[in-house]
Amino acid sequence: MEYHPGGEDELMKAAGSDGTDLFDQVHRWVNYESMLKECMVGRMALKPFTAPLKGKHHILKETLMCCFARQLLDCDFLLTIEKHKDVIPKTNMASSLTSSVSYGTLTKNKSLDNSSKEVVPSYDWFQTDGLITVVIYTKQKDMNSELVIADLQDGKLRGEIIVKDYSYLFHVELSYAVHEDIIVQVSEKVGKVEFVLKKKETVSWKTLGQLLENHNSFVKCKDRGLYYRKCKLLSKANVTHDTRLFCLMLPPGTHLQIPVGHHVYLRQTVTGAEIVKPYTPVSSSLVSTFKNPSFSDKMHVFFMIKIYSSGLLTPVLDTLQIGEYISLSNPDGNFTVSQVEEVEELFLLAGGTGFTPMVKLLNYALTSSNILRVAKLMFFNKTEDDILWRSQLEQLAHNDARFHIQFVLSEPKEGWTGKKGKISSSFLSEFVKRSKVDSKILICICGPLAFMEQGIQ
C-alpha cells in the first residue's frame, strides 16, 4: 500500500467491484493491458492442485500477488511476488520488464509532524509516442491551479505544489528535449496534478531524467525560498503623472497564477547589485469593457507601480524598454479568498498605491460572492491627480449598486467638494458601519506604514 499513489482509500473505492472506470479517471492514458502482460507469471489457480516435484507430490498453494513494477528514475525496479521457492525458478524477473511507467514516492521524513505526513504527495510518470506526462498525487480534495507552479526552462522541469503550509518540489533535468510550452491540468476533486510535455523526437524514454537539488522534497513553505523566472515587458502605460501600469509576459514554459491578496518580488541588477522589491499584481482593468482582449490573464501579469525619483528600483523600471526582461518570483502571502466568501459587507481602506491589493480582491468579491451586499472603498490620496483609476472606480460604482467609492484628499486643490483630511476615527466610525447588526464583515487596509498603523489603531 505504501507505494500506491492513491493509497488505501482510493483502492477501496473499487473493492468488490469493477474498477475499470475508476482506473480510467486517473490513468486513462495508460495501456494497462500491455503492462499486465509483462507482469503476468501464470494463471490464477482457482483451487489447490497437486504437482510432481523431485519424485514427490506436494500441495502447492500458489498465491501470486499483483505484480506491481515500480521503476524509479535511476532505473531500479521493485517487484514483489509471493511464490513457492521450489516451483518458480530464481530469476531476475524485474530485469525483463520494460515499462514506460515510473513511480516516485517520498522517503519518510522524521522531522514532519503527524498532520503533514498524511498529506505527503507522491508522483509517477507515463509516456506515449509524443507526450510525457508527470502526475503528482497531492491527496488533497481542494487542490486548485493557483497552488501549482511549473517552470520548464533549459530542459529542466521544476514543479512546486503548495499543500497547506507545506511546499512539495518536483525538480528534474529531462532525458530528452521537449517543446518549451507545458500543459498543466489539475483535478480538484481527487487532488491530482498533471504536467504534460511534448516530445521533440518520437523516442522511448528509459528514464525521465536526472534528479536535481531538493527534488521530491516536502518542507514548510517558509523554508523553501523563492524561485525567479525572467519575464518580458510587453507594455507600459501612464496611470497618473507618476504611476505606470506594466504588463509582463511569463515564459511559455511557466504556469503561474498569483492568488488574490498575494504579492510577488521583482528583481533586477542595478549597478552590480541585486535589488528586490515586493509588488501586488492587479487586473488589467477594473471594468471588463476596458480590458484588452489580446492580453490573457494566464500568461500576463500587470503591476501598477509608482515611480520615485530617489528610489532604488522604480527609476530603473521606468526606463525599462519594451522587450527587455525582469525577474519575477513565486507568489508570497497568507491571505485566502475563503475570508471573503462568507462576508456580507466588505470595507476596504487604501492609501496611495496601497490600492493595488484591493483591485483583485474587489473583483473577486463582486464576481464570486453570492451573499455580498455591500463593498465599500475609502481611497486616501494627496491630490486629485494622484487618484489611481478614478474613472474606472466611478464606472464600477455605476455598474454595480453594491459598490460604493469615497475619495479622501489630504492636499486638495480649490474646488474639491469631496472629503478632506487624513485617516482618522471620525472618518472610519462613519465608514465602517454595518447595515445590519449581525452582518458578517471584513475590513482590509493597505498603504504606507503610518497610514496602516493609524487606521488599525
UniProtKB/TrEMBL annotation:
For this protein, the record's CDD domains field holds: cyt_b5_reduct_like (cd06183), p23_NCB5OR (cd06490)
- Kindly indicate whether the keyword Translocase belongs to this entry: no
User: In what residue span(s) does the FAD-binding FR-type domain sit?
Assistant: 226-338
Which residue ranges does the record assign to the CS domain? 118-209
Identify the enzyme class. Answer: oxidoreductase
Where it mainly occurs, coarsely classed, is endoplasmic reticulum
- UniProt keywords, alphabetically: Endoplasmic reticulum, FAD, Flavoprotein, Oxidoreductase
The organism's place on the tree of life at top rank? Eukaryota
EC number(s) of the enzyme?
A: 1.6.2.2
**Where does the record place the Cytochrome b5 heme-binding domain?**
1-45
InterPro entries given for it? CBR-like, Cbr1-like_FAD-bd_dom, CS_dom, Cyt_B5-like_heme/steroid-bd, Cyt_B5-like_heme/steroid_sf, FAD-bd_FR_type, FNR_nucleotide-bd, HSP20-like_chaperone
Give the protein's cofactors: FAD
The chemistry this enzyme catalyses reads: 2 Fe(III)-[cytochrome b5] + NADH = 2 Fe(II)-[cytochrome b5] + NAD(+) + H(+)
Q: Name one Pfam family in it.
A: FAD_binding_6
Location within or outside the cell: Endoplasmic reticulum
UniProt KW Endoplasmic reticulum keyword: yes
Record-given protein name: Cytochrome b5 reductase 4
In its UniProt entry, the species of origin is given as Phrynosoma platyrhinos (Desert horned lizard)
